[in-house]
Amino acid sequence: MFSKYDRVKIVDVPEDNQELYQLIGKEATIIDVDRDYDYPYEVVFLDKRSQNINEWHGILLFADRHLELSDEPDIESAKAEIRELINKIWKMRTIDNTELLSTLRRVERML
């Protein structure tokens, strides 16, 4: 059993959907737990791409068998976010302060 605000890693997905398999190995934070259901855990992913997939599918819910605790920092996702930010700066030569701060906060949570 997991608790609210636990950092978890996805080890399986609740639906047999090819796009959802991209979420395996990604880290997330549990933001809501409702033990009255078979899939009690609502999560928010630490990287933007995984969160977009999650939202596209209507906020996925997970069961215990889909998750495992993760205490390690998500270095690969942090690197991906930093690379994406660098590419935006190179292309645009400028970047919005709120977007920059938002990305840096995501990276900080990952690490």
Q: Determine the number of helices (DSSP H or I, runs of at least 4 residues).
A: 3
Tell the overall outline.
elongated
Widest sheet: strand ordering: 4-3-2-1-5
First-last Cα distance: 24 Å
Pairing-aware structural class of the strands and helices?
alpha+beta
Helix content: 25-40%
What does this structure look like?
With 111 residues, the protein is α+β, with helices and mostly antiparallel strands. It is built from 3 helices and 5 strands. The protein has helices spanning 48-56, 75-92, 97-110, and strands at 7-10, 27-33, 41-45, 61-62, 67-69. It has a 5-stranded antiparallel β-sheet. A hairpin with a 7-residue loop joins strand 2 and strand 3. Helix 2 (75-92) runs antiparallel to helix 3 (97-110). The chain is elongated.
Summed up:
This protein is an alpha+beta fold and 111 residues long.
Give a topology summary.
Elements lengths: L6 E4 L16 E7 L7 E5 L2 H9 L4 E2 L4 E3 L5 H18 L4 H14 L1
Antiparallel strand pairs: 1-2, 1-5, 2-3, 3-4
Characteristic terms for this protein:
5-stranded antiparallel β-sheet; 111 residues; 3 helices; alpha+beta; 5 strands; single chain
